[in-house]
Structure formats: C-alpha cells, structure tokens
Amino acid sequence: MATTKNINKVTIITTLFVMVSLCDMVGVVFNIELLRSVFKPMLMLTLLTLYVVSMQQVNGWYVGALVFSFFGDVLLLFEGELYFMLGLISFLIAHIIYIKIVLGWINTSSLKTILIATIPFLLVFFALINLLKNSLNELFVPVVVYGITISVMGIVSLLFYLNRKSVASKYMFMGACLFIISDSVLAINKFYTTNNLFPIIIMLTYLAAQYLILRAVLTHAKTNK
C-alpha cells in the first residue's frame, strides 16, 4: 500500500511539474511576464518535491543544486547586471555541485578517455568565447569562469558515460549537453544577437536538462543501493 501511495504521489507531482513547465513556456512564447513571475519560481520547487517523494534517503548535495537553481531562476526574472551576476553565481554553484555528484560516480579513467571527453567541450567553449569576447566587456571574466565550469560539467558527464554506459550515465550526459545548449543560447541572446526563438530554446533545453539530471540521480541511486 505504501508503495502504491508513493507511486501515486510521484505521478501527481510529475504531472504538476509538466503543467508548471507548460504554463511557464506559455509565458515565454507570448511574453506574459505575470505567468513567468508566477510559474518560473515553481519549476525547481516542484522538481525538488518530485525528488524528495521519489527517494527514501535524499542526497543533500543534489537538493542544494536544485535550491541554487531555484535562486538562479528567480534572479534572472529581473532586469539589470546585478541580478544577472547573482543569477550567474547561483547557477555556477549548482553546476559545481553537479560536477561533485558525477565525480563521485566515476571510479577510474584512463588518460585517453579523459582526453576524448575533454576535447569536444573545450572546442565548444573556445568557439563560444571567441564569438562573444568583443561584447562581454567587464563581464568577460565571470562569463569565462562560468563557461569553464559548465564545460567541466559536460566533460565529467561524458567521462561517466564512457566509463559506464548505464541508463543513469545516458540521462546525465544528455542533461549536461542540454544545459550547455541552454546557457550558450542564453549568452548569445544576451551578448551577441537576439532572436524571438532564443528564449523558447533556452527554456525548453533548460527544463529538459534539469529533468534528465533528476532522472540520472534517481536511476543511479536505485541501481547502486
């Protein structure tokens, strides 16, 4: 009975997360600030609730990553360089936590595997910085630091996948790649050129990334009891 109740809770909260995400996306597509202000802060809160009801013993580090992602979501709702910087710091901390979690899943790796995992993300990082460097101005260093951090997240997720081709590693790798796409498009939209499609791409990839990372954390926990 307890298992059935738990499954029902997971289903209900998953449905709630989908509904909140759809409402937020409507706000993005039609540029309705009220919808965004109401539903964007709820995204990580519903995802956190989904994680807690899905686990008997929660990972405090992962909870922390969702909390900092929540702060990042809220701060980026506001205009201005200060809010952008604070939002950047919040997501930077979230990514560092994700890196720590994935590193804890990796046992050993050869130098060859590390190089294979590193090269594609370094190429993407340098290409993006080269594109944006002339318009970053005083934000050059913070953006570079953030870019390095999320590149490392991509590297360790690919390293995890190359070492253990499990369901959890696939979820984590896809989530990391989508997060990099989301943040890259956000940077291009803010510092290089704007496009009406960019905000939609940013949120779609972000939501998918966070959900896939959740699935990775849940799957890894259940298969490594």
From TrEMBL:
The keyword Membrane applies. The chain crosses the membrane at residues 12-32, 84-106, 113-133, 139-162, 171-192, 198-218. Its main location: membrane. This is Lysoplasmalogenase. It is found in: Membrane. It is a multi-pass membrane protein. It comes from Aureibaculum flavum. The keyword Lipid metabolism does not apply. Keywords: Membrane, Transmembrane, Transmembrane helix. It comes from the Bacteria. Belongs to the TMEM86 family.
